[in-house]
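Team,

Forwarding the record for the chain on the shared tracking sheet. I've put the sequence and predicted structure together so nobody has to dig through attachments.
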Amino acid sequence: MTEFFERYYPTLCIRRAEMLAMEKLPPTEKQKMLPIVLLAPWLNSIKFDNTFERIEISIGNLPIIVDLDRFYQSESHNESRIYFRSLLKGDGATDRWIELITQHDNYIPTVQTVDRSDECISQQINVFKELGRGTVFRFEIGAGVTPSILDKYRDEIDFGNTLFVIDGGWVDYNQVTEAKIEGFVNFITGLSDDARIVVCCSNFPNDFSDLDNMAQVEISSRRFYSSIRERYGNYQIFYGDWASTKPRRYDGFGSKPLARIDFPLKDRWIIARSKDEQWDFVDAALRITRLPEWASRPPVWGATLIDKAAKNEPGAITTGPQAIAARVNIHLFMQNNFSAEDVTLIPTDAPWEDPI
């Protein structure tokens, strides 16, 4: 049985950046956190099994929470896409989801509630309780399903071994969203004093047109969490976020983005890019490494990539996806060690091996 306690709960998609960033974390860091992995087809794979294989490369056989990535869109008749859609809804969707969970011993199941009957939800609760790994309910603000459905199943839910994830999605800090999150928290804690709740959201920018030269963006998920935690201090409220990423979007593609280096701190991201001066990755990395905050950088792969870029060395960041992976890697480490006074002193028992 995986215990749900106060630790970091990052939400990860099956995308290159997140998978590579997790892969490059020290093993001890992976063991401390409990990732929430949103399953979807891996790149253009024909077989959905490639998703499971990529997760194992990134995380090994450590316990992870799994859910379905309902932001993923594809009308392809590729085998992996057909299987993925069959998990979302339709006849047999619940049975297929249960089968997927039982085939992977380290997968902690999320109860599927969207497009599910009361009978299917009850079936999952009881099957997953019998598995003995712990059970998760995940509620996305604005997705239509709210914690109010839990009232029907309160006698079936083992609150001591169930985690409730409240996901605000991609949103800047605002009082309206905070009130919605608090409403969800209030309802769940009203069902049981023993309820364990994760508050999660993301606000990493999607548009950088107003962020030129050196800009700073507050990590809103920390603000949401701190506010809720302060008001519900007697309950078990835990922190989660989207690992400095955001839900998938399908709103077209603009012009080629400018070279950019992002440096995560505990409470904000520092973003280096310049439209006027047309910085490349070397220029942006140089600006980051000259910051006073750089002296307190964590001893992880992502920081090494930025340092190499600043020195224009082999193996440095030369593409946007590499820069994203570096950012996610650093962000995961920083949030996983949020309470540490000096992250530079945290031992990493598996030194990074330079492939160059």
